[in-house]
Amino acid sequence: MMIFRCRSLVSFTRTSKKLRLLSTAVEEANISSELVSPPHKKSANEKRLYRRLSELGATDGIVAQTLNQYIREGNFVKKIVLERCVRELRRYGKYQHALEVMDWMDKRDINFSNTDLAVRLDLISKVHGVSEAEDFFKNLSPQLQTRNTYGALLNTYCKLQMTDKALALFKEIESKNFTTSLTFNNIMTLYIGLDQPEKVPPLIEEMKKRKIHLSTFTYNIWMQSFSLLGDIEGVERVFEEITRDAKETCNWTTYSNIAGAYVKAGLVEKAESALKMLESEIKYPSREAYHFLITFYSSLNNQEQVHRVSSLLKSSFETTSNMSYRIILQALSKVNDLEGMKKWFEEWESNCTYFDTRVANVVISGYLRHNKVEEAELVFHGSVKRSSGPFVQTLVLFMKHYLANQQIDLAMKCLETAAERAESCNWYPHSFSIDVFLEHFEKEKDVAGAEKLYKILQKLNCVDDKVYSHLLQTYIAAGKTQPDLSQRIERDGIVVTPELGNMLKKVCSV
């Protein structure tokens, strides 16, 4: 097989969310402004700077070097340009780079607004974790602990589903009279994430009672709660209220939400009607709006509309972003247009200035879904020539394919190679994949295979009692013993339950 010939060079998605769940006060404000005004025209200077930043790798300190070099070349950079670069980097998930830009600004004593501080807290939580975000918030002076920074911390808790901390902070925000629609939006988003959509409507009633403005996002999440409850009439009641009483809050995201509800309910004609209205509400070219349209049409298996909107997206902007290519390629894979997928991928390959392996992975996933392994391997080897990896997620795609087809040896090779490369990206295999391996080795009484898997998982620091349970059961099924397992289980810090203890007695007896 071709993949593993490249091990010396490299050791090797779910579609977009149907509903726009905004993160912080900054993001909600930014999106709202983009919906009602034309997109900002970047100057040539701003384009050059953003292009340099967006093409950087993931090496610490490289952003500061790039900014310093840019200034040494005689360029002058305004604060607003840096803020726009941060916003764009965040938009495309380059959180480390965005934070390094803000760190660079801080070292040069550039004053941060309350909004800037909220953005920085959000980035710290994404890059360094919630603990450092909490420290950042605590170290702010009382004057800078505003509704913006409180909101960013609340958003962090809600995204991580830290319910107790989120609800406690919500009460603190209320005590300071910092409560806004965004505060409620964060809590409602938390409940949606916890699969408790029934808790959303009472919060809406509380907002109305307290005369807190219902934003576009508030209405959207209200509709989503009814959709998740299977109450399509509830979704339509909310939509009618928006169009009747809050027309100013109605925009393309409103229609994307009701379209999503109709798609989920299998109401194809209503969904297509909502998508037409969505498109009519796009006042200025919006990548995000086109992304939603493409994704929805692929969900409806409408290949013609996927191609039409993809072409419209491409013609509406000077360049087609890597994110846009990913959305288009995912959609074409979903509607089973592999020729179209290949055409768009080859176009991206020939034009991209930064080889984003996530784009290639979409195509690899599409080919594997259609059992075209050779085509997937060719794309992988093309990626190896243009990127340094680590290609862990690529390996995972192949591993899952081989597991689904009961090709355990090949899947193990993928897992082993991924483990070799995992240190650079803090990757851990999904528990479902581990279970498939464990159950196979137990069924086949394959002690050697189970032990090999154990060593891989130990290297990744993800050995638990479940792994030991299957390992012991494999030994028992094979009628073999292993005296050192008691010491190993103790060394790995596993709590020995009565069930594990009984199995250990059988396996460790000589």
UniProtKB/TrEMBL annotation:
Classification via InterPro entries: PPR_rpt, TPR-like_helical_dom_sf
This protein's UniProt keywords: Mitochondrion, Repeat, Transit peptide
Pfam families in the cross-refs: PPR, PPR_2
Protein name per Swiss-Prot or TrEMBL: Pentatricopeptide repeat-containing protein
Gene Ontology MF terms in the entry: mRNA binding
Similarity comment: family membership: Belongs to the PPR family. P subfamily.
Cited PANTHER family: OS01G0301000 PROTEIN, OS12G0527900 PROTEIN
Subcellular localization(s) per the UniProt record: Mitochondrion
Superkingdom of this protein's organism: Eukaryota
Principal subcellular localisation of the protein: mitochondrion
PPR repeats: 146-180, 356-390
GO CC field: mitochondrion
Keyword Metal-binding: no
